[in-house]
């Protein structure tokens, strides 16, 4: 009886052990491949994350004049999918991972925006915002599918000898506040904060900010008796003098855009505040992003 019990105990232990191995090779619950790419053979999804709207910076080209890798800022729906290698399978080389995804993108008209074959070959800081800046056989891909522009960064370093996909579908943020709500907020708080996207270091407004400006102009036309100051604000990257001029130029650009949308010019004034009035901590990228803003202030 004792031997039989020991055998049963051993079999139960082995069953649990093999069940654990099997579970370790299963996709994480709730995770699935992105429609853009199939997975490499003998891999499973170790983890995944999804967000309706994020900003990420994708490395493009080589170094710029400051000896840092060039980064392209992109906003939209964002996915992170981390793949692990199944138990007993042969690990793909970093180059094999990189070439597979590059070739897949090219076959549907995609572009390879950057190739970084060596360990830690990217000269990046915390502004990278795509995981660990010490990448291995990383590559940035851009392609169009279903009327959307997709940006992808593939990193051949992941848990369990796998790789990581970062995918972003470029799009403007869905505006959840109506014009009436904006008018009520302006009257109650005395100001509206606009996050308008500009070309880096310039006052040129990007097309993905049109909806934000349309809604702001609608609110100002609905509150037609108000005088408004258009105030430009920056983060603390750069010199105070440069940021002061940049904020003033951006405020003027937004004022011009509002006038073009039917807001009377004699109701508006533009003023730059540079980096002097932060609303968040400039030590984090999230804080700096919040500080780069334009405020419509009731006078």
Q: If you had to describe this structure to a student in words, what would you say it looks like?
A:
The structure is a single chain. The chain contains six helices and ten strands, in the order αββαββββαβαβαβαβ. The protein has 299 residues and is α+β, with helices and mostly antiparallel strands. It has two domains: 150 residues, no CATH class; 120 residues, 2-Layer Sandwich (60s Ribosomal Protein L30, Chain: A), CATH 3.30.1330. It has a six-stranded antiparallel sheet with strand order 1-2-6-5-4-3, covered by helices on one side. A four-stranded mixed sheet has the order 7-10-8-9. Strand 8, helix 5 and strand 9 form a beta-alpha-beta unit. It starts with a helix and ends with a strand. The N terminus is likely disordered.
The 3D shape can be described as elongated
* Low-confidence residue ranges: 1-22
Summed over residues and divided by their number, the pLDDT gives a mean of 85
The biggest beta sheet, please? 6 strands, antiparallel
Question: Gap between N and C termini, in Å?
Answer: 91 Å
Structural class based on helices, strands and sheet pairing: alpha+beta
Which keywords apply here?
299 residues; four-stranded mixed β-sheet; elongated; 60s Ribosomal Protein L30, Chain: A
In brief:
The chain is built from 6 helices and 10 strands.
Topology:
Layout: H1 2-24, E1 43-63, E2 69-85, H2 94-107, E3 111-116, E4 138-145, E5 148-155, E6 163-170, H3 179-189, E7 191-194, H4 210-222, E8 228-233, H5 240-260, E9 268-272, H6 285-291, E10 293-298
Parallel strand pairs: 8-9
Antiparallel strand pairs: 1-2, 2-6, 3-4, 4-5, 5-6, 7-10, 8-10
Helix pairs in contact: 3-4, 4-5
């Amino acid at each position: 009886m004792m031997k039989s019990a020991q055998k049963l105990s051993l079999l139960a232990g082995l069953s649990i052990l093999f069940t654990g191995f099997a579970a370790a090779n299963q996709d994480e619950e709730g995770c699935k491949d992105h429609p853009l790419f199939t997975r490499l053979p003998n891999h499973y999804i170790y983890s995944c994350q999804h967000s309706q709207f994020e900003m990420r910076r994708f490395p493009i080209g080589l170094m710029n004049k400051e000896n840092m890798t060039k980064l392209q800022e992109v906003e939209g729906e964002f996915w992170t999918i981390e793949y692990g290698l199944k138990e007993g399978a042969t690990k793909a080389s970093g180059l094999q991972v990189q070439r597979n995804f590059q070739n897949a993108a090219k076959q549907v008209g995609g572009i390879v925006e950057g190739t970084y074959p060596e360990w830690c070959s990217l000269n990046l800081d915390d502004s990278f915002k795509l995981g660990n800046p010490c990448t291995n056989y990383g590559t940035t891909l851009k392609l169009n599918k279903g009327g959307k522009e997709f940006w992808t960064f593939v990193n051949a370093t992941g848990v369990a000898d796998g790789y990581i996909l970062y995918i972003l579908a470029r799009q403007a943020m869905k505006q959840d506040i109506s014009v009436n709500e904006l008018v009520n907020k302006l009257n109650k708080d005395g100001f509206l904060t606009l996050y308008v996207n500009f070309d880096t270091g310039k006052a040129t407004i990007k097309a993905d900010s049109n909806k934000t400006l349309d809604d702001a102009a609608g609110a100002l036309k609905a509150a037609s008796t108000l005088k408004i100051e258009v105030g430009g604000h920056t983060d603390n990257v750069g010199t105070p003098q440069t940021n002061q001029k940049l904020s003033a130029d951006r405020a003027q650009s937004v004022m011009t855009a509002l006038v073009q949308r039917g807001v009377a010019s004699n109701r508006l004034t533009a003023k730059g505040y540079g980096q002097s009035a932060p609303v968040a901590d400039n030590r984090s990228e999230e804080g700096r992003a919040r500080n780069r803003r334009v405020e419509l202030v009731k006078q």
